[in-house]
TrEMBL record:
GO biological process: receptor-mediated virion attachment to host cell
Residue windows of the TPR repeats: 63-96, 131-164, 165-198, 233-266
Record's keyword annotation contains Iron-sulfur: no
Name of the protein: Tetratricopeptide repeat protein
Organism: Tianweitania sediminis
GO cellular component: cell outer membrane
Entries under SUPFAM superfamilies matching the protein: TPR-like
Signal peptide: 1-26
Keywords: Repeat, Signal, TPR repeat
The UniProt record lists the keyword Signal: yes
Length: 280
């Protein structure tokens, strides 16, 4: 399944989110932390899928085997195959709340947000203590601009002492969007504690540091994000923002160019590159 297993104590009281208009940051986080990526890379391999297929061939009524293979297909980016396996797992066991949540994530990747919400709702009807479903539904709500519903879901998971960093990352993004950067920094710090090998928390915290005028800490966080994974466009674009703010147009343009190379559709990188090339 697509979750994490580390623990961290958290304060019991959480501040109320006040949705205030703020200036948009130069780059924004939209990626969710730890979803398909939380499956070990080997689980999406053709060898592992073949092994799981052998299990299913021996026992075609094994709902768990379909669920695991569906997760492997999801990790490999074979979303249609994943969907078929989760459908089968649920047909065999209609109370399989984990399979509903996994299928919801595939619906989301395929752009079917209504089906994703319906599957998360069904998962929670079966098990209203399943933090993964609250977090996943919260991500759908957040990306749809339904911030209050998203906050409620993240808060519910956090109150259940979830160890899934996506809850803190998601809530941090909401705080960041509303200009509550100190709260955002605290949530991103928790994200980092739970997933120190992932760049998301560093990028999020860096952007809030940057919004507060703390360029040094922002720059340090963006550099760590790049060191952890140099293939993430957002990290390079964020680094470029610091260079640009410092007046180092040449380095800013180079970092924006790297971000645009990694993701030609990443607008902050494309816009930043055009901007720095004009002024360079």
């Amino acid at each position: 399944m697509w979750n994490h297993s580390m623990q961290l104590k958290r304060r019991s009281a959480t501040p109320l989110l006040v949705l205030l208009p703020v200036l948009a940051l130069g780059a924004c986080q939209t990626a969710s932390l730890g979803e398909v990526a939380s499956i070990q890379a080997a689980q999406g391999s053709s060898e592992n899928i073949a092994s799981l297929t052998s299990v299913i061939d021996r026992n075609p009524r094994d709902a768990e085997a379909y669920n695991v293979r569906g997760s492997a297909y999801g990790r490999a980016g074979e979303y249609r195959q994943a969907l078929k396996d989760f459908d089968q797992a649920i047909a065999i066991n209609p109370q399989f709340y984990q399979a509903y949540a996994n299928r919801a994530l595939i619906h989301r990747y395929l752009g079917d947000q209504a089906s994703a919400i319906a599957d998360y709702n069904r998962s929670l009807q079966i098990n209203n203590s399943y933090d993964v479903a609250y977090i996943g539904r919260g991500d759908v709500y957040r990306l749809a601009g339904q911030s209050r519903q998203a906050l409620q879901d993240y808060e519910r998971a956090i109150q259940m002492n979830t160890t899934d960093p996506r809850a803190y990352n998601g809530r941090g993004l909401l705080y960041q969007t509303s200009g509550q950067h100190n709260f955002a920094i605290e949530d991103f710090a928790t994200t980092i504690s739970l997933a120190p090998d992932q760049p998301n928390g560093y990028n999020g915290r860096g952007l809030s540091y940057l919004a507060l005028g703390d360029d040094e800490n922002a720059f340090a966080d963006f550099n760590v994000a790049i060191k952890l994974n140099g293939e993430v466009a957002e990290s390079w674009a964020n680094q470029a923002l610091v260079y640009e703010k410092r007046g180092d147009t040449a380095r800013a343009s180079k970092s924006f160019a790297r971000a645009a190379q990694l993701d030609p559709n990443y607008k902050p990188a494309v816009d930043g590159l055009a901007r720095t090339r004009r002024t360079g």
